[in-house]
Amino acid sequence: MRVLFVTTNWGSHYYHLVPLVWAMRASGHEVYVSSEPSFAETIVRSGATAVPTSRDVDQGELMKRVLADPPDWPETAPEGVSQEEWNSSWRNVSRRAFPMFAALAEELADDVLRQTRALRPDLIVYEPTSFVAPLVGAAMGIPAVRHVLGVDVIYMARNIVPPVLRPLAERLGVGDVDILGLATIDNCPPSMQLPSQVNRIRTQFVPYNGSGGMPGWLLEPSPRRRVGVSWGLCASDRGRGFLVPELVKALSDLDVEIVVTLSAADRKNLPEGELPDNARVVESLPLHLLMPSCDAMLHQSGISTMLTALSYGVPQLVLPQMPDELMESRPLIAAGAGIAVAPEADLDTIAERAAELVTVPSYREAADRLREEIRQQPAPTETVMELEAFVRA
Questions:
Q1: What angle do the packed helices 303-311 and 11-26 form, to 10 degrees?
Q2: CA distance 124 to 112
Q3: pTM (global) more than 0.85
């Protein structure tokens, strides 16, 4: 079987697909990954074959176009979002984000269509915001299945996005196409997943946060409880922005070892001279290397960080700022495996809640239950067999 994966050039999205890429290759299938040229090195480092599009798309310019001519957007909240949330900020945020993904699909459509014609895959697998994939699949008569990124926040947009994609669909000679694909590969622990009506193919979340080597200090036992701090893969300009300095300061008086892992873009925002004695900063350390030694994790509520921590039974303190982060953090809190703190919380509140997280056993116990739930899901190799049967059918 020949499989074409389609992904945006964001590691936080592509990394969810990598374990299935590995499983496909190990099962003897041909695998190719389509994305923009600047992302090809990341794909190759993951052990996959990159198929670059003809050019990189300037997403900043796309967003300017969307903001200059925003589409009509529903006044009534979609399923899974309260009307109060929709009226506050969620409507405006989604009115920017989803049309931008649609504009990106328009920009990439000719390239992905050309790649698909040349490769003639038996199956297309795509991350949820690569709207170009199900459209090209429909145009070529090739089944396209979506691989969610944990909590399925895109499900809320299933009835909102098709009208925005209609001009592209007409250009490709197809009608309205379901952005959810013919099936959904779901790597979220079932108890944390949002209610949805999809043709679901379950798979185990296998943590992969990029390539990297194990530093020697991680092979030594920590003399104190270790608390990780992360802020995602790229510099944050959302909400209150980059809150790592405040988090480190809040933890500085606790009897813990603080390990801050940052992207190269964010590293400059945390000067070395401002670090307390019980903290160290590492750049671009894959979280799946750090997490097994952690007693707690503090982060912005990114789903990749959340599921990586849960894979090792690590409780979490999260500071969600955007609608997707709020939706993703709710199941974690409901399960008792974490604590949510408002981004505007003062340092004393953050310190108190972090201390509670590492000292109250119930948080670790709940995180352990979710870890076992993750481990009970079908391994990616089993998912490959189900996809083989899906294509045959």
A1: 50
A2: 11
A3: yes
Tokens found for residue 134: 């199900």
Query: What residues have CB less than 8 Å from 189, skipping those under 6 apart?
Result: 205, 307, 310, 370, 373, 374, 377
Residue 62 and residue 364: Cα distance in Å, rounded? 43
d(CA 177, CA 163): 10
Phi and psi at residue 230, to the nearest 5°: -140, 160
Task: Work out the burial of residue 237: count CB atoms within 10 Å of its CB; fewer than 13 is exposed, 13-18 middle, 19 or more buried.
Answer: exposed
pLDDT tens digits, 255-283: 999 999 988 777 777 766 778 888 899 98
Alpha helices in 128-269 (DSSP H): 132-140, 161-171, 244-251, 264-267
Closest CA to 112 of 170, 175, 165, 36: 36
Compute CA distances 297 → 139, 233, 254, whole Å: 44, 15, 14
The length of the chain in residues reads: 393
Reported as type and span, the H/E element at residue 363 is helix 361-375
Q: Which DSSP string corresponds to 40-83? A: HHHHHHTT--EEE-SS---HHHHHHHHHHSPPP--SSPPTTS-H
